[in-house]
Design brief:
The protein is mostly helical and 277 residues long. The chain is built from six helices and two strands, in the order αααββααα. It is 69% helix and 3% strand. The protein has a two-stranded antiparallel ribbon with strand order 1-2. The protein starts with 8 loop residues before the first helix and ends with a helix.
């Protein structure tokens, strides 16, 4: 190798190696600071693009999960209200059956009739309050049910069907003006209550089935989000144990590089000895 006062090839090589070591240290320190081996497109463009796509899916599935959470809450409120109505119908049947006794006097019959009408009014109160976030499955306002998001592309939905429990409807067949004023009227009410009770219990079974479907799908969406999150981590997360070991190795390499550069910079001094006496 030529000895020159103008060009120190050894020093240039040593400096290049030291700069490479410094750049590697910056990369390792960035991974340690962020916890990511791919924090941007310049780190690994293809992996970053894939990870961003998966992050987009995770965000969209978060919206699906929120939609299903709302579905479950609406369904829970409807079931609680339906169960309360079923309990009231049982009490109403008791009053109506008692009113069928031909031996009771007018005062007692009026008392049974008053209790019955009070319970009927309570059903209306429950129906009007069986609402969550503006949705009521029991008052007949949602004839086609209510649809909720099912996938990240928002192309599929799952439906929670409504169950119209309005007084005098197809489920609760008791007329709004029903009375226990006579034995005959009480007998008619008993028959209507039994039919209504069977219908309400079937409607509750339908609601329970739909709600179970919503909860199962919500569980699936949660697991899918976890899997995608794990997948993103596998792509972009840094292995901190490896990065720690690499940092220590680079620190030693950096110190050796500085020493090598110092030695290379001293090589031109050899030229002076060539001209010594």
């Amino acid at each position: 190798m030529t000895l020159s006062v103008h060009t120190n090839t050894s020093a240039m090589i040593a400096l290049q190696n030291l700069n490479k070591t410094n750049n590697d240290m910056v990369e390792v320190q960035n991974r340690i600071n962020t916890g990511l081996k791919v924090s941007g497109a310049k780190d690994n463009s293809s992996v970053f693009a894939v990870a961003q796509g998966m992050r987009s899916d995770i965000g969209a599935l978060g919206s699906v999960e929120s939609s299903l959470d709302r579905a479950v809450s609406i369904g829970d409120v409807a079931i609680a209200a339906g169960e309360a109505i079923s309990d009231l119908l049982i009490q109403m049947r008791e009053k109506a059956t008692a009113a069928m006794d031909p031996s009771i006097d007018t005062f007692s019959r009026q008392a049974f009739d008053g209790d019955f009408k009070s319970l009927l009014d309570q059903i209306n109160v429950i129906l009007s309050n069986a609402e969550f976030d503006g949705a009521n499955l029991l008052n007949g306002s949602l004839t086609n049910g209510i649809a909720f998001l099912a996938d990240a592309d928002a192309t599929r939905t799952v439906t929670l069907d409504g169950q119209d429990m309005s007084i005098g409807g197809s489920i609760i067949t008791i007329a709004a003006a029903a009375s226990l004023g006579t034995v005959t009227l009480a007998g008619n009410v008993v028959s209507a209550i039994q039919t209504s009770l069977d219908n309400v219990n079937q409607a509750l079974a339908n609601l329970g089935s739909d709600l179970k479907k919503m909860e199962a799908h919500r569980t699936f969406v949660g697991k899918l989000m976890d899997s995608l999150t794990e997948g993103v981590g596998n792509l972009v997360d840094a292995d901190m144990a490896k990065e720690s070991a690499r940092l220590q190795a680079l620190q030693v390499k950096q110190q050796l590089g500085v020493q090598a550069l110092s030695i290379a910079n001293s090589e031109p001094q050899i030229i002076l000895s060539l001209f010594g006496r």
